[in-house]
Amino acid sequence: MCELVWFRHDLRSIDQPALTAAMQSSETVIGLVIIDEPQWKAYGWGEPRISWYLQSVRCLAEELANLGIVLRIEKTGLSRTQATVVSQIVQKVGATRVHT
Questions:
Q1: Model-level pTM?
Q2: Strand partners, 73
Q3: How far apart are CA 38 and CA 36, in angstroms?
């Protein structure tokens, strides 16, 4: 079994309470970032902010890899909400807990 850490807005691995909690309670931790372009548009995100966010995701992936943690990057879709994505990943990986 493993635990899932859903990185929503706080894309850091250092001093990250959700990540710390998951690492303390399970040997296997998987990170998750959900790309939600419709939400970005609703919030009025422009190209500079989107570029900054995606670069932050790349940095997070590297930081987590150094800790032996895989970062899954998923996208929402027409019938695939953030909640649906989390539910699907929990089922796929057999996560016992989701930290966020």
A1: 0.92
A2: 33
A3: 6
